[in-house]
């Protein structure tokens, strides 16, 4: 009897050590990276945002949203090729009583679900972790139906990412760029779209974290106009209230090594790069001349030396932007 008690104590002690060793203070994936877990997390994050559109009476308690946010921070995800419960294949299994709550989900079944169904699954699996048994979907269905009636679930994952960019939360953006974009093999067109969204939101975190993608910046050019020039135009058109953020965004691109010179699309002229400074000299609004100087100072910090030709100086003089012309001339003299 004594031996059995010692064995039982040892077994319990071993289990407690095993749990402690696996305990994590932040939610994360416990398996090799793939886009499904990133997508799962994006939807859970987006749910927290769109809960504000739901009639509070549809929630199981007044503090449901806060409890959801608190619990989600520590949830661990584990993706499995296939998942079975009592011999039956299922979409997901949750373990709310673990020291670190766990959600296992089937990768194969996840990929076959519509976006709306994925929202439903994420919310359903979170319910027991938050503290509500949702075996008949009695708690999750009223919330999902409310969101669906408002058209809030008819989104592509790219739209969800875009909404996160608009919010421009540092931690969320880092997660999106490093977990979702890299793992989902986003195409060049999608990357361009994300950078466009980042520019409109003046979200420097996107540019900083997406630099880890090793994306070919030349592919950001559209219709002969480089992305950098689009950003410069955005700075020039900005009102004073938004200007500091837009300047910071431009500055971050320069520091990350975005190209400021591009080859002309006309073959016979392609040997001479067209610089963003060439386009800057063509600004005609005198109210923006001081701003063109600020932009010039930022661009000169680029790893890629700006190409300034005599014609750029002449154009700036022609537009009566004397200060910019003088700055160009001084830069050429010391290059």
Provide structural commentary.
- This protein is of the alpha/beta class and 335 residues long.
- The protein folds into 2 domains: 19-149; 216-333, no CATH class.
- Helices cover 55% and strands 8% of the residues.
- The protein contains 16 helices and 8 strands.
- Strands 1-2-6-5 form a 4-stranded mixed sheet. Strands 3-4 form a two-stranded antiparallel sheet. Strands 7-8 form a two-stranded antiparallel sheet.
- Helix 2 (35-50) packs antiparallel against helix 8.
- The longest helix has 21 residues, at 2-22.
- The chain is elongated, with a radius of gyration of 27 Å.
- Residues 1-33 have low confidence and may be disordered.
The number of strands is 8
Give me the oligomer status: single chain
Approximate helicity band = 55-70%
Task: Classify the beta-strand content into a percent band.
Answer: 5-15%
| Number of domain modules | 2
Based on CA atoms alone, the radius of gyration comes out at 27 Å
Strand arrangement, major sheet: 1-2-6-5
Instruction: Count helical runs.
Output: 16
Question: Biggest sheet, in brief?
Answer: 4 strands, mixed
* Uncertain ranges: 1-33
Structural class, from helix and strand content? alpha/beta
The H-and-E topology, N to C, reads as HEHHEEEEEHHHHHHHHHEEHHHH
The shape is elongated
Q: How far from one another are the termini?
A: 89 Å
Quote the average pLDDT: 79
């Amino acid at each position: 009897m004594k031996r059995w008690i010692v064995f039982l104590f040892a077994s319990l002690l071993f289990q407690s050590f095993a749990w402690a060793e696996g305990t994590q203070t932040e939610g994360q994936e416990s398996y090799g990276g793939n886009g499904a877990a990133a997508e799962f997390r994006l939807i859970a994050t987006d749910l927290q945002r769109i809960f504000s559109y739901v009639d509070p009476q549809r929630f199981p308690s007044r503090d449901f949203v806060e409890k959801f946010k608190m619990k989600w921070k520590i949830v661990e995800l584990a993706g499995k090729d296939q998942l079975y419960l009592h011999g039956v294949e299922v979409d997901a299994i949750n373990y709310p009583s673990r020291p670190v709550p766990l959600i296992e989900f089937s990768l194969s079944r996840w990929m076959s679900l519509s976006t709306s169904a994925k929202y439903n699954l994420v919310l359903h699996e979170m319910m027991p972790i938050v503290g509500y048994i949702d075996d008949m979907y009695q708690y999750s269905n009223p919330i999902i139906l409310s969101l669906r009636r408002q058209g809030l679930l008819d989104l592509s994952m790219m739209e969800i990412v875009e909404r996160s960019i608009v919010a421009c939360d540092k931690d969320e953006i880092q997660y999106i760029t490093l977990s979702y974009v890299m793992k989902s093999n986003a195409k060049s067109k999608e990357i361009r779209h994300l950078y466009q969204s980042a520019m409109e939101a003046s979200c420097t975190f996107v540019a900083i974290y997406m630099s880890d993608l090793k994306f070919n910046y030349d592919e950001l050019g559209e219709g002969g106009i480089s992305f950098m020039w689009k950003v410069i135009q955005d700075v020039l058109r900005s009102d004073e209230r938004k200007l500091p953020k837009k300047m910071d965004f431009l500055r971050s691109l320069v520091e990350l090594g975005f190209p400021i010179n591009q080859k002309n699309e006309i073959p016979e002229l392609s040997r001479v790069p067209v610089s963003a400074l060439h386009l800057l000299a063509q600004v005609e609004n005198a109210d923006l001349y001081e701003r063109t100087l600020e932009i010039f100072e930022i661009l000169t910090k680029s790893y890629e030396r700006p190409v300034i030709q005599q014609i750029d100086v002449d154009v700036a003089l022609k537009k009566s932007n004397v200060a910019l012309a003088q700055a160009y001339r001084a830069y050429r003299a010391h290059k």
